[in-house]
Amino acid sequence: MADQIPLYPVRSAAAAAHRKRAAYYSAAGPGSGAEWPSSRYQLEDESAHLDEMPLMMSEEGFENDESDYHTLPRARTARRRRGLERFVCGGWKLLCTSCCDWLVNICQRKRELKARTVWLGCPEKCEEKHPRNSIKNQKYNIFTFIPGVLYEQFKFFLNLYFLVVSCSQFVPALKIGYLYTYWAPLGFVLAVTIMREAIDEFRRFQRDKEVNSQLYSKLTVRESKNSIGHGISEDVRKSSGLFYCGPLAPRGSGGSQSWQKRPLHSASSCFIRTDQLDGETDWKLKVAVSCTQRLPALGDLFSISAYVYAQKPQLDIHSFEGTFTREDSDPPIHESLSIENTLWANTIVASGTVIGVVIYTGKETRSVMNTSNPKNKVGLLDLELNQLTKALFVALVALSVVMVTLQGFVGPWYRSLFRFLLLFSYIIPISLRVNLDMGKAAYGWMIMKDESIPGTVVRTSTIPEELGRLVYLLTDKTGTLTQNEMVFKRLHLGTVSYGADTMDEIQGHLRNPCPQMQSQAGGNNASSTPPRKAQSSAPKVRKSVSSRVHEAVKAIALCHNVSPVYESRAGVGGEAEYAEADQDFSDGNRTYQAASPDEVALVQWTESVGLTLVSRDLGSVQLRTPSGQIQTYCILQMFPFTSESKRMGVIVRDESTAEITFYMKGADVAMSSIVQYNDWLEEECGNMAREGLRTLVVAKRALTEEQYQDFESRYSQAKLSIHDRALKVAAVVESLERQMELLCLTGVEDRLQADVRPTLELLRNAGIKIWMLTGDKLETATCIAKSSHLVSRTQDIHIFRPVTNRGEAHLELNAFRRKHDCALVISGDSLEVCLKYYEHELAELACQCPAVVCCRCSPTQKARIAKLLQHHTGKRTCAVGDGGNDVSMIQAADCGIGIEGKEGRQASLAADFSVTQFRHIGRLLMVHGRSSYKRSAALGQFVMHRGLIISTMQAVFSSVFYFASVPLYQGFLMVGYATIYTMFPVFSLVLDQDVKPETAMLYPELYKDLTKGRSLSFKTFLVWVLISIYQGGILMYGALLLFESEFVHVLAISFTALILTELLMVALTIRTWHWLMAVAEVLSLGCYVASLAFLNEYFDVAFITTVTFVWKVSAITMVSCLPLYVLKYLKRKLSPPSYTKLTS
To answer: Is the pTM for the entire model greater than 0.85?
Structure first.
């Protein structure tokens, strides 16, 4: 039926537009050729007609002829307030927001960030004032600590309510009891909170002090002396040996690990680690300013007239633009500075020594500017309890009004009203907050002590219950679902493909010298300057497979940023003794360091087939052939990989033949338009992607000396530009990227994490929808989704076609709407367009899919998707990631889980929960999340029951005694009731469990019930209210009926029966007994019995030792509890809960 319903309103214009768009889609299909551009432009010209055609999200809407696009807001929330409510609420919100912004701007005037010029060794020439070079992560100071903590506490309704109630006891006319009965619980809560905040603040102070007090070696005009620096958070540029640009390295930075490995590089470079800044654990090479390397001594840095011009402080840690100028030379030397010359704050010098100049300090450093305060996450359970608390407050006011009304409004009735509000204030128990916070701490301790998930850390102890309410799980791919361990799997040359079982054939080709290479070498030996023009104009001949293998492997071995690192010999200490002659260059002593594991995998593969990278520095690279011959190549230019270009390149000169070659490798989407025409690249890329392999296209271009010199002059000029440097440099490099010779296609496998498939299946059976958000390309993401069983092999997949404007998005969403029960795969670019115009519609459709894969996603888009799900569905979301690019998503989700992986610990440190493996998430959610939610729900409702029952007894007491506003229990009885008499048994509910952990893992469907919120709802709350009213009435009326002469006997009978009733109700609530629960019950009862001897002020000791007292208390307690036990037994027999069927 759905296929027969038109997608648009039935109008003539709409029908015509529909036919035109159908023509567009037929033209957009494969093989449309030249028809594609014209059809596309035709659609864009007619996109204005879409204003008259709404995007229909339900089939009923197709019959509505009055629909109009303008009636559908872009987000289409349809929840805007109207009329007076909108005016009042919106105006008040706008007024408050404006006032707050004005106060913030007045109190925190931000200094405008500007570019700066820093003179070398001449600080007096710097006219600008810069921030102090210190960091401060403290939330308060000595003056704002107490006010700040109190504000954070009393901005919640529950605490503010008790503050008002406690303060009212200072008014004599309103005083109804001892002050400590109100101030003691409130003071305890505040003391615990202030102590916890003080400890956290002191730890932050200690960390700041440690960082800001690190020692540096400061280079001065006279001598090098030790001085105390203001902090490691200095952003500077650096140079190993004589002059760098980067942050100054602290003395002994990096610890023992920094000096265990020594890179084979010259003194003009060093390695750093940036895992604390961007989450990447691989070493990165930093290069010195070349003109300072020619100075004979360190002291000569002060004898030259030079300065650094740097751009204004920015957030981007992956780019920098500046220039180094030396004025005392003729002509002046200008050298461009880029990211490879910089070392930011919070990075560690892994090898080498750094002499640097400070450029950015304090608040202007990259690390501080990129530090954002994550939002305070509040659990859904806390929000639900807050709503119930407000409902209790309404009941409190209503009950007080009824009492005053029945009293007849005699005398100062408003005073009686306020006294009744105070008498019934225990309806809202202050111990609720204390018990829940202590319960959360207990859950966190249980999670970290679980031996089945070792290494799990709870970093946010306020939301463990969120783990039991999740509906959407947003996960990264690389390093989260996969191991981020790359293994070379395939080499494709166009006509021949080599896999893991045919790598020996490649080794055979490399052992046999290539005939073409031999002839070139022989010719070049005779003439040291071969004719370049003849080479470029020579006719093309079909190369043999052997020569193509030689060229492909050589290109892979040269085009990378990998550096071989050798272990230092034990006994070698100091720079002078560290010579190449003393190095152990054996294969077993060599490891590789690079910015990407893909790069290392490629170089390790070339080593396995015989071509080994043995040495590399800034200007050269050495390869060892299978025969043992060393080939040396001079590195003329390096073009690093960027997310925008999606490719990297290198220009090298073979020192034996003087040939200049430009090698490049990158993603197929970037390289397909650069390489020469071929008929196999696109197909083979798709084939490898379907196998789950990460593909790279490798190409080369031979350059003449004249071509290279022309390029170098233009490239150097572009790098010196201050404005639009990146665009100018890219334009120059692109002039070389034309008609490159396609050499090969490589495939690298990223292995899945252990037990990923069963874990995803477990989560899916638990009713959790899993979305994979990755920066990888569409084909690889789709393949990993299938191989990990995120999408079953029998399930249909809808690949969202690329869209660039609203019209295309409109058509594609309508096409997707007609699909049913299929997984969605969408790219980041298309996602951005759809979120811009059809945010609500996209969310509505995507949420109906069993699985969603978003590829080519930026970190900002990942966070935006998490917020979109929260806003659109109102369900709880969880984000899982392992790298620095996942931090924003983790902080935006309701619950963030970080995995300690190869990309560093940044995601783990920013997350609410940290695990070591993805498979641990299953137990974390199914067992601990489920238990935490059900326990907190039971604990919260029981604490409210404890307050409701005593308030009911107070209401019965006041109504019997002519509506007098006199307290039933006073002083220590009220304090003891909420603490030593019932606290331990009630809190022991955090040990309760309905099913064993093994059963919860075996039947994940049990988790699905939690998302409906049935453990804590207005229905269950109403049941507890009725129980409280029944028991409170029985206890009070029973005591009034059974007492004989003294009123003090009423207090003794009712209070004792109340304590026994609460202990029995705890036992009734418990589903699985723990030995600590029994100890708590016995201990509390013993404390009460022992304290009776000291309560002469409240009880008649002679009466409570009689048999009459015992049987009256027993009778009342039996009547209050026995019916509930009977009802519970009948309910379990007639309508047992789902978990009892599994445990029986």
So the answer is: no
Q: What is the four-CA torsion angle of 1081, 1085, 1087, 1092, rounded to 10 degrees?
A: 170
Amino acid symbol at 501: D
Given the residues 278, 476, 668, 992, the one annotated as active site: 476
Structure-token pair, residue 411:
């005398």
What is the bridge-based pairing of β-strands 482-492 and 497-498?
antiparallel
CA distances from 676 to 523, 647, 671, 673, 743 (A): 28, 16, 10, 8, 10
Are the CB atoms for 958 and 423 separated by under 8 Å? yes
- What's the rounded Cα separation, in Å, for the pair 1085 and 985? 10
Is the separation of the CB atoms in 230 and 133 below 8 Å?
yes
C-alpha–C-alpha distance, residues 1086 and 1092, integer Å: 10
280 pLDDT band (50/70/90 cuts)? Answer: low
Q: Kindly indicate the confidence band of residue 105, based on its pLDDT and cuts at 50, 70 and 90.
A: low
- Residue 750, number of CB atoms within 10 A of its CB: 23
Cis peptide before 331 (omega within 30 of 0): yes
| Confidence grade of residue 1143 (pLDDT, cut at 50, 70, 90) | low
**Residue matched to tokens 């020569």:** 547
925 DSSP assignment: I
Phi and psi at residue 782, in whole multiples of 5°? -65, -40
**What does the alpha-carbon distance between residue 718 and residue 724 come to, in Å, rounded to a whole number?**
9
* Cα 987 from Cα 382, distance rounded (Å): 17
Distance CA 674, CA 639 (A): 15
Round the CA-based radius of gyration of the chain to a whole number and report it.
Answer: 37
- Core vs surface per residue 1005-1034: b (16+ CB within 10 A) or e: ebbebbbebebbeeebbeebbebbbbbbbb
Spatial separation of the C-alpha atoms in residues 682 and 703, rounded to whole Å = 27
Q: Given its phi and psi angles, is residue 311 left (phi above 0), alpha (psi -120 to 50 degrees) or beta?
A: beta
For the stretch 227-243, pLDDT in tens is 333 333 333 333 322 33
Round to whole Å and give the CA distance between 899 and 63. 50
**In this structure, what token pair is assigned to residue 405?**
């009304």
Look up residue 93 and give its amino acid: K
Report the residue count for the chain. Answer: 1144
Alpha carbon distance 106, 422 (integer Å): 42
Contact indicator for 969, 1056 with CB cutoff of 8 Å: no
User: According to the model, what pLDDT value does residue 1022 have?
Assistant: 92
Identity (one letter) of the amino acid at 748?
Answer: V
In single-letter form, the type of residue at position 1118 comes to M
Identify the helix (H) or strand (E) that includes residue 228: strand 224-228
Q: For residues 417 and 434, what is the distance between their CA atoms, to the nearest angstrom?
A: 29
> Which segments of 969-1020 are extended strands (E)?
none
pLDDT digits (tens, 9 = 90+) for 635-690: 999 888 876 677 889 999 999 899 999 999 988 888 888 998 888 888 888 888 77
Count the Cβ atoms, other than its own, within 10 Å of residue 999.
16
Give Cα separations from 167 to 161, 182, 369 (angstroms). 10, 9, 43
Distances from the Cα of 638 to the Cα of 647, 715, 745, 1127, angstroms:
12, 11, 21, 79
Q: How far apart are CA 602 and CA 613, in angstroms?
A: 11
E-strand stretches of 828-906: 851-855, 876-881, 895-899
Provide the pLDDT for residue 277: 65
Instruction: Identify each DSSP E strand in 846-917 by its residue range.
Output: 851-855, 876-881, 895-899, 913-915
Query: Quick one: what percent of the chain has pLDDT higher than 70?
Result: 78
What pLDDT, in 10s, does the model give residues 906-963?
678 778 899 999 999 999 999 999 999 999 999 999 999 998 999 999 899 888 887 8
Give the pairing type, strands 876-881 and 895-899. Answer: parallel
894 is a catalytic site residue: no
Please give the structure tokens belonging to residue 667: 């993603």
Helices (H), 838-858: 839-846
Cα distance from N-terminal residue to C-terminal residue, the chain: 46
